[in-house]
């Protein structure tokens, strides 16, 4: 019961406020654009110089052309404001898209540089490892040659390193 009573009160208040708004708008017709648009919900037609209640759903069915209608401001027409707001929204969307593209491009370049530096570190480690392996192989080769020379000297195949030309085979 309370809900229905509340609904009826709200409906009656809305009805009186819309009637009141229409009356306020028609009273402003003779006073000019600024007086009309200062009243909430009113629009001013510059060709007919009439102030009437503005409803978006009735914008295109009015006797006043949309290019001559002024709503909430007398600076520009309704059509002008639609164009200005559309252009600004388009520029904003374009700026956001360009910003996103620039950020993505910068992140991609950063990841490429990071990958290149990682590859250079890996190449440097591989070169160091190869150098260490070559050094170790040379050391093992020298050690094997020393051991082989010691064995040759022991069995008389090699008399002395300084005198390596005296080498002769055993009978």
Give a brief description.
Keywords: Membrane, Signal, Transmembrane, Transmembrane helix. With 171 residues, this protein is mainly alpha-helical.
Sequence of strands across the biggest β-sheet? 2-1-3
Compute the gyration radius: what is it? Answer: 48 Å
Count the beta strands: 3
Helical region count? 3
Structural class: mainly alpha
Q: Would you list the SSEs in sequence order as H and E?
A: HHEEEH
Question: Strands, helices and their partners?
Answer:
Elements: H1 2-27, H2 33-38, E1 42-45, E2 50-53, E3 69-71, H3 78-154
Antiparallel strand pairs: 1-2, 1-3
Comma- or semicolon-separated keywords:
171 residues; mainly alpha; 2 domains; 3 strands; transmembrane; PTTG1IP; transmembrane helix
Structural summary, described in words:
This protein folds into two domains: 75 residues, no CATH class; 61 residues. By secondary structure, it is mostly helical. Strand 1 and strand 2 form a beta hairpin. The protein has a three-stranded antiparallel sheet. It is rod-shaped, with a radius of gyration of 48 Å.
